[in-house]
Each structure stands twice: as structure tokens, then as C-alpha cells.
Amino acid sequence: GGSVADFKVADLSLAPFGRKEIQLAEQEMPGLMALRREYGPQQPLAGKKIAGSLHMTIQTAVLIETLAALGADVRWVSCNIFSTQDHAAAAVVVGPEGTVDNPKGSSVFAWKGETLEEYWWCTEQLLTWPDGSGPDSIVDDGGDATLLVHMGVEYEAAGAVPSSAEDDSDDHKLILESLRRSLASSPTRYTDMAKSIIGVTEETTNGVNRLYQLHKAGKLLFAGINVNDSVTKSKFDNKYGIRHSLIDGINRATDVMIAGKLAVVCGYGDVGKGAVESLRGQGARVVVTEIDPICALQAAMDGLNVVLLEDVIADGDIFITTTGNRDIIMAEDMAKMKHNAVVGNVGHFDNEIDMAGLAKVPGIERIEIKPQVHEWKFADGHSIIVLSEGRLLNLGNATGHPSFVMSSSFSNQTIAQIELYTKREEYGVGVYMLPKHLDEKVARMHLSAVGAKLTPLTKVQAEYLGVDENGPYKPDHYRY
Ligand code: NAI
């Protein structure tokens, strides 16, 4: 391939280290490697411009290079200001065939520790190819790229960008600024862009929620594939992934002993269940908060105390939010915590922990222990330790989920992108799940690597169950 036209990463000289880790990851990502072998010769993504906004890690590097191996022209940003692994970003720009002096990989705009302004600048670059055109499809994680396009179209139709945002988050203000500039220089940019986008494949629970909300409001502009709710995504990445990466983040950030501590996990969904196992595995005493009676009952039957935050606020040593909801731990809660209690979030956005409120507490002092680890000292002299400024701590303080589980998630992503391009007539405006046979295919691709031998279903058994011998083996309503 030719040289990379444009990119912005922290340090291109980190590429050789990144390449070595990518090679280690490839061995641990059998699904992605199998898809390269299966679809490489057909090139189903040939010439397709794919824009990805998803944590720029080593695992994501293997996804990017898989999409490129199937023919795609890929641009990438991270979907979080702290989640980029700079050696991964550098290696993707250099590419498997390039050198640091002559990079030949993909255009990446991502570095660890972006400001929010830089984050939205990167997202603008993501959507603008060197010839001025936009993407043919999006890979999104949390929906920020999709959100920018949709807001752009809305304000272009209105001919103006509102002077203040409906929510007062810094993100929203920055999006409005970006769109104000865009409207002034090219008033139909996003409208034209949206027309040529065939769809988005969305990675996470929060992003999928946004897609369903957009569709319900009649505002969705293209197809959305809900990758999160493939069983081989949410029941694996969200659960087993966090089981691995939550304590990794806590350990690298604080190295505090987890055994014996009282850990409070807010939310007992897929991520919450993994978080609880992670902490219990270290010997913590774990309690859970929930709003959903089904998940609360599950937690109780799993042997956990289901409590109100206010009842454990003064006793908890470690507080972890996993809800995907807002306003879970407020400043007044943090004021009541014991000295050096650790507070962190693994839900997608940074509004689970009230960081804005914390900064406004009279007399509070913020002391940086190291990047992404802050002591907040209250006027009465007691402190709490906040990880990754309230953003995803497993990616901010550690390196996110390990390769093997991400192979499962990203195999779904790759298959979803292939679906969009090869079966366009089946994916009009709407939000879709991948068919179950593809979910089963992803699982199948990972079995031999974990030494699992699948029992073949006999013809007679298949008839007895009323399923095909080759699957799908379960009805769509089955919950696993
Ligand atoms: P989920 O919907 O399965 O679980 C969230 C749970 O939180 C639900 O059971 C809900 O009832 C509960 N909840 C909501 N409001 C609550 C409140 N006020 N108090 C207590 N509990 C409350 O969603 P899932 O898949 O577990 O995802 C959770 C979040 O984690 C999302 O933001 C998702 O995008 C993110 N995520 C993060 C990952 C990471 O690597 N850090 C990986 C995968 C997902």
C-alpha cells in the first residue's frame, strides 16, 4: 500500500513495540484470524471507507488490521480520552509492511490523555477523508461518532446550531462548537455524509441504547447493528472481560490489597456480574446495589447482600459503578466515605460518578498521585482516591479486556461490517441484531483454543428438539 496520508499519535517510534504485542495478540484472537483466512480471498470490504471510534488498544489494532485485510480503507480514533495505548496507535499507523520513516498502515488520531477538545477534533478527523469525503460505514463504541453525524444533520436542516446545549456537559458544548464551525464553512457536510453512510455497528450497551432511542424518535438515519447484544459479546466481554480488567485497573492504580475489603458494586447487569466475580476472586466482601428487581434477586441468590448505597457509604473500601446510568455516586456520598476509599467507574460514560460536583465541594483539594489516579482531600482532612477521573478505569488505569475475549467481540464487529456491505437490502434504517447462526459461528471459532470439544447432535436428537443439526440450537428468546 501507499503511505498513510494523515494521522496524529503520541510517538511513532513506539511502533516496533506495538507490533510485537500485536503479534502476541493475534495468537490470542483466533476468531479474527479465522475471518481473515475465510474472507481474505473474497475482499468483501474492498475499497470501503470504514471510520472506527473504539478504544485504540492492541486488541483493536488486530480488528483494524482485520478490516484492512478484507479490503477496507480504515480511519480510527479512540472513544475515550484515556484508553489509547500509544504503542498500539503507532503500530497501526506504521502497519505490518511500513516503517517508522515510511508508515503504510491506517490513519489513526488517538493518544492517551487527550483533552476533550482534542477528543472531538480527532472525531472530526475520523469522519473526513483526505479527499473531503466521509465514511461508508462506522464502527462505534458508545455512539459518539454516530451522535456527531446525527446532530450535524439536525442542525444543518434547522440552518443553525442552538446557542446552548440541552444538557450542560462539556462534551455537548464541544460538539456544538464543532458543528457551529462546520455549518459556517460547509452547510450540508453532515447531510451529504449521512446519505453515503450505509450503517453503524455498535459495540456497547450505552451506544446501543442511544441507537434505539434515536430510532424510537424517528431520527435514525441509517442501519445500526447491535453488536453488544450478540451473546458472544455481552455475555463474554462485558462479564469475563471485566472480571479480568477491573482488578487489573485497581491494582495498577493503587496496589491496595483487595482481600478482606468491603467492595460496593453498583449495578448487577453483565458488567456488574463480572465486577463482582473479579473482586470476590480476590477475597473482597462484596455487596451490590440495583434498581431492577430481577437483577437484585439474582444478586441475592448468588449470595450477595443487596444494599442501599447510603447504608454502606461509610464502611465501603472500594466503590465501583457499572450501571450505564447517571448520578450513581454523588459528591455528598463521597464526602461520607472513609479515608482513602477507592472510587472508580467501568460504565461507559463519566456521569456515573459526580466529578463536577466533587470539584465544587468547598475546601476540597485535588492531588495528583500519578496520571489517572487522584486523591481528593476534603476540608475535614479525609481523602478519597478517584480512578481515571471517573472514566472507564479498566481502560484508563490498565489495558482493557484481554485479547481472547475481545476476539469474540471483534469477530462480531467484523461479521457485522461484512453483513452491512454484502446484504444491504436486509439492513434498511433500523436497529438489528446479528442472526443467531453467526453468534454461534463466533463461539465455534474460539472453542479449540480453549480445548473444548463440542458434542455433535445426532439427527434423531436434532429432530427431537426441533432444531437443525447445524444450528441455531436455541430459539431467539433463549437467555443463556
Ligand atoms: P446492563 O444493562 O446489563 O447492566 C447495568 C445494570 O445497572 C442493570 O442491571 C441496571 O438495572 C443497573 N442500574 C441502573 N441504574 C442503577 C442505579 N441507579 N443503581 C444501581 N443499579 C443500577 O449493562 P452492561 O452491559 O452491564 O453495561 C453496563 C455499562 O458498562 C454500560 O455503560 C456499558 O456500555 C459499559 N461497558 C463497559 C465495559 C468496560 O470495558 N468497562 C465493557 C462493556 C460494557
Please tag this protein with its features.
480 residues; alpha/beta; Rossmann fold; 2 domains; 8-stranded mixed beta sheet; 7-stranded parallel beta sheet; 20 helices; 43% helix; globular; binds 1,4-dihydronicotinamide adenine dinucleotide; Adenosylhomocysteinase; hydrolase; NAD(P)-bd_dom_sf
What low-confidence regions span 5 or more consecutive residues with pLDDT below 50? none
Cα distance, first to last residue? 44 Å
**Regarding CATH, which class of the largest domain?**
Alpha Beta
The computed structural class is: alpha/beta
Order of neighbouring strands in the sheet with most strands: 9-8-7-10-11-14-13-12
**β-strand amount:** 5-15%
List of distinct ligands in this structure: 1,4-dihydronicotinamide adenine dinucleotide
Protein name: Adenosylhomocysteinase
EC number: 3.13.2.1
Subcellular location: Cytoplasm
Binding site for NAD(+): 238, 267-274, 290, 325, 394, 401
Describe this structure in words.
The chain has helices at 15-27, 30-39, 58-69, 86-94, 116-126, 144-158, 170-185, 189-196, 205-216, 231-234, 237-254, 270-281, 293-301, 309-312, 331-335, 355-359, 393-396, 403-422, 436-447, 459-465; strands at residues 49-53, 73-77, 107-109, 137-140, 199-202, 223-226, 262-266, 285-289, 305-306, 318-321, 341-345, 365-370, 373-377, 383-387, 430-432. The chain has 480 residues and is α/β, with parallel strands linked by helices. It folds into 2 domains: 12-234 and 401-438, 3-Layer(aba) Sandwich (Rossmann fold); 243-396, 3-Layer(aba) Sandwich (Rossmann fold), CATH 3.40.50. α6 crosses α7 and α11 (237-254) packs across α12. The protein is globular. The model has no long low-confidence stretch (mean pLDDT 97). 1,4-dihydronicotinamide adenine dinucleotide (NAI) binds at residues 204-206, 234, 237-238, 241-242, 266-272, 289-292, 295, 322-325, 328, 346-348, 392, 394, 401.
